[in-house]
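not sure who needs this but someone in the group chat was asking about RNA polymerase subunit sigma-24 from Knoellia subterranea KCTC 19937 so here u go. i didnt clean anything up, its just raw.
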Amino acid sequence: MSTTDSAPGAQPRVDAADTSGATHRAVEAIWRIESGRLIAGLARVTGDVGIAEDMAQEALVAALEQWPRTGVPPNPAGWLMTTAKRRAIDAHRRESNFGRKAAVLGEEAVSGVDSDAVIDAMDDHVHDDVLRLLLTACHPVLSLESRVALTLRCLAGLSTDEIARAFLVPEATAAQRIVRAKNTLADRGVQFELPGPEELSERMSSVLEVVYLVFNEGYSATSGSDWTRPDLCNEAIRLGRLLAGLVPEEPEVHGLLALMEFQASRLPARVGPSGEAVLLPDQDRRLWDRLLVRRGLEGLTRAESLGKPLGPYSLQAGIAACHARALRADDTDWARIVSLYDVLVRVWPSPVVALNRAVAVSFLQGPEAGLKELETVAASGRLDLYPHLHAARGDLHARSGRLEEAAEAFARAAELSRNEADRATFTRRATELRGTPG
């Protein structure tokens, strides 16, 4: 006989003061995992991502209100889904067009609608629903900033405050981006549907761009006191794995996921004991996460095996794989890296890619050769305000023995950097070089 008055299978009821914190953490964890699927299912029925997200938020609020009193249910994800769907049905019943919505779900009329049957129907095609949500949140009619905010909100389950903190903007700014994105989708009549093959390619490119931007902001923060934000990297990788499951025949999806896993494997070695930045040549490679390296290699192999030309993410993953395979910095296959950059600058022309190629050339052919390539890139003026151009110039001058020029370049990099860890690293290098006998 039960010694509690809990419902069968529910968690025992204990003092709320003891459990509320743990319950809230459980709700947040479940929400982070399930919110994308939940919002996707609701969006298919309502045809509106904004309404779907609002209904999902109502279910979240209900959980935060009820679970501290009743305990976390045995199937919390199912509870959230059922609660949100029942609210969706109730909302439709209040609308004049509910009959049309119900018909879409296979119901013949409003009268006698079986809510449980409708809820069950909403569980069909979850795979396609989540893909639709990704493609809708990353629709090209939205600005890149809005795409990022809406994706993190709907697919990653981040709160507005978390999104604001991740990108170092006021919470009001993050909220405005999300609201603006929802309104734009509604005003432009963007349909919650899978596009045709031609449009799918364009939309998938937008999705990958968003995930890539989120990861890069976590891997090398553009501003603020932290050099890296691992939580943001983890969210991007989670989105990448979700995407790889949704479109397994797209090589660039696997290429991007592999690239992120290779890069993330270095995170434990990128920050020193005192929080200082540790650059790639100086990292203790024993600290690299070998599981992520193995996953990256498997993902790259998958991308290469699909028989399609490799795109920019797969090529970058190939470059990262060269570093991952080298147990010591001196073992790096710089010839292969330069050859991959030669292809990358053709398929994805960018001054930053050209700069990275120049650095690779310096390790293959010497700092003078690299500096020649770098100055060709710099001549366009497009990277004048890019701190890493000046840091690369400083490193190449230092390796060539021109210490004063190197110090000046690092000082300029520090002046331009908005990231405090980068600024401290560049300042330290400039100071060290000025204190080194010529």
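also Residues 1-18, 105-125 have pLDDT under 50 and may be disordered. if thats useful
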